[in-house]
Amino acid sequence: MYDFAIIGGGIVGLSTGMALGKRYPHAKILVLEKESQWAFHQTGNNSGVIHSGIYYKPGSLKARFCREGCRSMVEFCQEHGIDYEICGKVIVATTPEELPRLENLYQRGLENGIKIKRISPEEVKEIEPYVSCLGAIHVLSTGIVNYKQVCKKYAEIIAQQGGDLRLNTKVEKIITNNNCHVLETNNGTFKTRFTINCAGLHSDRVAKGGGVDPQAKIVPFRGEYYELKPEKRYLVKGLIYPVPNPEFPFLGVHFTRMIDGSVHAGPNAVLSLKREGYKKTDFDWRDFVEVMTYPGFWKLAAKHADEGIKEIIRSLSKAAFTKSLQKLIPQVQAEDLIPTHAGVRAQALLYDGKLVDDFLILHGQNSVHVCNAPSPAATSSIEIGKAIVAQIPDQQHLQTTLVR
User: Fold this and answer.
1) Using one digit for the tens of pLDDT, what is the confidence trace for 62-99?
2) Cβ proximity of 62 and 361 under 8 Å
């Protein structure tokens, strides 16, 4: 019998396991991951950015966890010798219409307590010589890291704490008894007093299997990237972002220098026809039908039809993708870009067509379910893990085992 079982071995599941082991050093902790390696899906395919928290609604979990997570992630990397760099980023306005939005973003950043500066086009050139813009914000605290390395260290710490880590173990059914959950998997059956659902792209299904209705559905959006040819990497020194459209839930295509020195450009954002669909041709009938029959998706599609069409065009046309990048760096040409990996974002969508804008953490019978944790979840992972553990009720039947 385990005291805690975590479903999902991405960065949130592993950070939660690490936080549990720290708070309850005598607890029996189990982490289940259906893939053959940790951080296989969202975590392993993201852009590796340590976000500052400038974008998020003041007072939201995203704003608080990201700001605090930026600090704690850097401290973690320093403590454990993980390569990272605080390179900063510029958010640039390229049209007059974007200047008021840039100012609004600047004010939001100040309200969130982010270390930022308004800078002129001339000052931008000192940071990013090839960027063309009308104005910008310099975000000084943004950094880069390899989150797979971070997750590897999280897993090592859980093992050192005495946790039980199981790869290639998919939870297929959850049975709730009086004071425990029975987790039936393809690799055996496990009993646990408390279950924590960090299943990412499948978190809504796991929640329902555990008797909790998240009142939202995970809709997968694929983000496709290009990589600059090595001889063109000089065009980008750090991170270059456009001013996001506040009506659209994604940040727009941007340039990201990775911790290995490569430079990625993207992503766009298109509906994936499979929850783990990293290729344009990937298709899953169940995933497809769930989205197509969900009223919330059609309400979202109608509201953002123009932007959605632009994203699809960028997905199908390298020329269109290149044109979007040229708004930031005019010198970039289509022949400079090489297709690279894609990622899939698990985005919770409400029945009324509104995207869940914040982290969504729900409670069930002796369970916690993380049902929306897109970006900046990686940056915020240490803080999310601590918050989940803090929300676990000190129930009597748990206390007998956990406090000795």
Assistant:
1) 999 999 999 999 999 999 999 999 999 999 999 999 99
2) no
| Contact yes or no for 217/181 (Cβ under 8 A) | no
3-state secondary structure of 24: coil
Computed from CA positions of residues 38, 43, 49, 54, in that sequence, does the dihedral angle turn out positive or negative? negative
Interhelix angle for 381-391 vs 11-23, to 10°? 50
Interacting residues of 3 by C-beta distance below 8 A, sequence separation 6+:
24, 27, 28, 29, 192, 193, 194, 398, 401, 402
Please report, for residues 40, 53, 224, 292, the alpha-carbon distance to residue 243 in angstroms, rounded to integers and kept in the order given. 30, 14, 19, 31
- Coil, helix or strand for 237? coil
Task: Tell me the domains of the chain and their CATH numbers.
Answer: 2-43+148-214+358-402 (3.50.50.60), 86-142+217-350 (3.30.9.10)
Q: Which of 34, 3, 1 is nearest to 17 (CA)?
A: 3
Confidence of residue 41 (pLDDT cuts 50, 70, 90): very high
**Which pLDDT score, from 0 to 100, does residue 393 have?**
78
